[in-house]
Amino acid sequence: MKYKNYDDLFFTDDFLFSKIMRNPEIAKGVVENLLGIKISKIKFLTSQHTIDELYNGRGIRLDAYIEGTNEIIDVEMQTKLRKDEGLRMRYYQSVIDIESMNKGKTYRELKESYIIFLCLQDPFGKGKAKYSFTTKEDDNSIILNDRTHKIIYNASSFNKAENQEVKAFLSFLNSKRASDKLTKKIQEAVDNSKDIQPWRAEYMLWKDQIREWQDEAQETGYNEGLAKGLAEGHAEGLAKGHAEGHAEGLAEGQLKSAMIAVKELNTPVDKAAKLFSVDITKLENLLQEQM
To answer: How far apart are CA 288 and CA 235, in angstroms?
Structure first.
């Protein structure tokens, strides 16, 4: 698989999307346009927000996580058609809620929650620009007040959007042509990113690490497809961690990847430690603890 050169990256590419959505003005403009609401004050905003593994399940990294006074909003960029959007939204919502409860919230204190997927292709093939889901009684007569909203935008049908700001934004994702104040500001941020050397260095490290892990994975005896998938998945986590500077999180991610290789793919411990650059003693101790 070929990866873009840094100078060719656009807002829809995961790396730049997570970086540019750190800008409070841009993030606020995007979510207000997409949701049709006003956010009075952003209390917390981060890109690639990490929610750690809970109850021995999977941890997640959110592309753009915004916490307002009365709402929590997660915006995810989807460049590939996966066909499992509903299940992924369900998982994201559950982990976000558990994290809120772990912060000492009661059920009644749970905020209005919005999970937004920005898709470049139509996941349902219905030609709509927006698919919106709420929890309802089977005959649609009662809406369950669980304060959750799941919204999928389809950029390929931007011309079907009723709201002009939304149409301009989806068109921008689809055509890369800015046409209003917000999209021009995003395009300016994309242009300026080319001169941000730390971002360039992080992206180059990501690409180099993928190639290295792919080569090492194949040398240790993985089949080509499995080696590529495991290497890319691990490198993606590395890139996201570098975006926020979570050194400890990166080390933990490498250990988890090595453990998966040993437990689920029957990789010898020494080869897994080498493949994911982890201390073999730490890996052996962690495996022993979970036996």
So the answer is: 26
